[in-house]
Amino acid sequence: MADRAEPCSMSRPTELITMLEDVWSSLDSLLATLDESQWKTATELPGWSVQDTLSHLVSSEKGLHGEPGTAHRASNLSNVKNPIGEFNEHEVDARRSLPGATVFTEWKEIQAKRRNTFATADDAYFAREMMTPTGPGTFADFLHIRVMDAWVHEQDIRRAIGKPGNQGGAAARHSLSRFVRSLPMVVGKRAKAPDGSTVTLRITGAVQADFHVATEAGRAKLVEVAPQPLCVISIDSEAYFAMCCGRQFWKPGDPRVAVSGDTELAGRVLSNFNVMI
Fold it and tell me: Residue 227 carries which DSSP code?
């Protein structure tokens, strides 16, 4: 998962709740149109279909609602990389033999419960301490990650079935704000940008923004301006998200990417965007 959860100062994270519920609504409109062959369509997630991706969202929200997980154990863990991945695979595999419409019904049921909880819970519910995928925090902190996770998986599903949508809304901008926090690590530690250099990342397309990473004394950090960047990387927002999530990987000549300046450094940056665990 990209970066650590950001402490949430608000007692009731209304903006995050709205973003998450908007993603759910967007997903509902899409999923209601699918036939069984589309449910079983492979995504860019190794071993996961469209249905599997929704199964993961179902199990995540059921767990947060306090409902028990499955006792089922998947027999094939070849794509699993860590304990979180193993937990997810058991939940996904438990639903794999079901029709997609059945999983969709389960999704709508748990979603209704979660919406009701968000509407009726007091401040203490959001302030309660818990372990998030990136460390200790509160449930309000965790919502930063839930928004990103739900939106990323919506995009996984949309790419798989060729139905793009919801690429430029609040959840997309929020997700971008999470991923760019990893840019100093990507540029400095992984790509080994030289001291005194600055790299500019220009996001184009549905979400647009410029980010600058300066390296000094072996440490890279985001800065406000870059008068003379060593290289400028322009990349379509959909491609950037897919690379950050390890769904796609940069190859020279990718028409969604343009580079000026130091092409070797730019190539090292582009090859190291993946920050998902």
Answer: S
